[in-house]
Each structure stands twice: as C-alpha cells, then as structure tokens.
Amino acid sequence: MQTNLFTPRELFNSTLCEIEISYKPKYKASELPKVVTSGDAYACLKDVFPSLDYREYFYILCLNRNNKVLGYCQISAGGLSGTIADVRMIMQTALKACSNSIIISHNHPSGNLTPSEADKDLTKKIREAGKVLDIAVLDHLIITSESYFSFADEGLM
C-alpha cells in the first residue's frame, strides 16, 4: 500500500503558480503629462518607439480619469510590414494600470499615414472590448518619423 506524502489539498496548493498583478507609479498625479489633443499623444509616443523607419510596433498609452498619462506599454513588435496586436493583451495592460482610458498606436515604417482596413477593423475590435470593460479608447494614432494620423481627428472613432 502506497502512502501519500501530501494530502490532496497540500498537493493542489503546491502546484499552483502565483499570479502577480502590479503597477508601480513613479510620479505624483500632478507630475504626469496630460493628453488633451492628438498632438499631445503624438508628443508622448513618438520617442518611445524604438524605430519608426524599420519595424512595425504597437504601443498603448494608459490614462487616468483626468487624461494624465499613467504610462505606456509595448504590446507587440513585428516585421517590416505588420505587427500583431492582441486585444486581450491591450486590455490586460489597461486593467493592470487602472486606466480609465487608453490611446492605441502603431507605426508605419513605409511612411504611409493611410490606415488599412485591418487597422480600422482592429480599432473597432479594441473599442468594443473597451466598452465591455468600461475603458474608453480615445484615439488610434498611426505614427511615422515625420507625422501622425489620428483616427479621432478624422472621425473614424
């Protein structure tokens, strides 16, 4: 007869992995930059992209209730002509930072500021997820080294 060294409860608890959710702000709310216009968002984002002319990246800005920037996060790094933005990862990040709203962004290494149908579809999908979670998606910026395209400014939100 074999004797178990652990009770079923001890065995179960010993195989569980802890999930840690953390957001550690480094600044007071009064010190955070505020986003009022798409130009403000572009100013915050253009320097966080590792490269605007080589690979495509997807980033989000997380904002508090007063549109102060809580932080940014790289969601994906792609290739020369595309990147994958997982809606679940975007919303996970927004929830982790206790965001009231987000601004999504990606770059077009080609320099073309025109949104593709895939860009429009993704924006719609992210906005729908945000509605369910009560996280507003304020804008989607397409960024190049010289300029940007704002979905909100162009009435596409």
Automatic annotation (TrEMBL):
MPN domain boundaries: 34-157
Regions that span the bilayer: none
GO biological process: proteolysis
A molecular-function term among this protein's GO annotations: metal ion binding
PROSITE patterns: MPN (PS50249), UPF0758 (PS01302)
Keywords for the protein's UniProt record, in alphabetical order: Hydrolase, Metal-binding, Metalloprotease, Protease, Zinc
InterPro entries per UniProt: MPN (IPR037518), RadC_JAB (IPR025657), UPF0758 (IPR001405), UPF0758_CS (IPR020891)
Name under which the protein is recorded: DNA repair protein RadC
Taxonomic classification: Bacteria, Pseudomonadati, Bacteroidota, Bacteroidia, Marinilabiliales
